[in-house]
């Protein structure tokens, strides 16, 4: 009979632990599913009716938008929590995911498995009833990692009111884009070329001072942090690009560079600056 020393047993346990860890990581990595058919007409109608970004695209880019919408919905589960998930909600969530990365056709939200749809605002304990419910959406951390929570009411309002520079779902997807490089810091290194990082941070710091002095039309929530600044300004960029360009031209130029989209260029034309990065 083989007799093992304590050191040998501990080494064996450690080795088996490493094997289990690698195995779990391997199986957790889901297979990415690509669409193999066109989206249903009902989805196209919903995009046409509720997503003006899609409506303004030419035919070729509409097809690409439909493909990315389909791909997103094949790879991300959408679950209602005390809320009914309607087809319209799925389309609006997918559109919010696609809009910021539309110039990057290869982009995949590999850091997201599921979107939980809550009926309305919630608090930090994810309660949908009672006091202190001010949160409209969030990107999960810890045991909520790879999940996003959105308020159904805020999701719909984001696409209904297109002049208030607010869109909760786009805001949350911009946080996910920010997170793609490993840290959420308001610097989307997955999209922003290295030489622009320092000028971008300097620009944020300057603009944050203007918010303190209340010399700006930017939503004061942007002042919370660099992280929120990037997400809030992205909402402004996608909802009121002409106004942002007029009031904050340098900021507009930066966001154009980050998202590789010039939304003030002639619409119904390809709006991309380059071929995506
Ligand atoms: Zn935020």
Description:
This protein has a single domain, classed as Collagenase (Catalytic Domain) (3-Layer(aba) Sandwich), CATH 3.40.390. About 50% of the residues lie in helices and about 5% in strands. It is built from 11 helices and 4 strands; from the N terminus they run ααααβαβββαααααα. It has helices spanning about 5-30, 40-50, 50-55, 60-75, 85-100, 150-160, 170-180, 195-210, 225-240, 240-245, 250-260; strands at about 75-80, 115-120, 135-140, 145-150. It has a 4-stranded mixed sheet. It is globular and about 80 Å long. Zinc ion binds near residues 171, 228 and 231.
What key attributes describe this structure?
277 residues, alpha/beta, Collagenase (Catalytic Domain), four-stranded mixed beta sheet, globular, binds zinc ion
CATH superfamily: Collagenase (Catalytic Domain)
Strand content: 5-15%
Average pLDDT figure:
88
Tell me which ligands are bound. zinc ion
- From the N-terminal CA to the C-terminal CA, the straight-line distance is 61 Å
CATH C-level label: Alpha Beta
Could you give the topology of this structure?
Layout: H1 6-28, H2 41-50, H3 52-55, H4 59-75, E1 77-80, H5 87-98, E2 114-118, E3 137-139, E4 147-151, H6 152-160, H7 168-179, H8 197-212, H9 226-239, H10 241-247, H11 249-259
Parallel strand pairs: 1-2, 2-4
Antiparallel strand pairs: 3-4
Bound molecules: zinc ion.
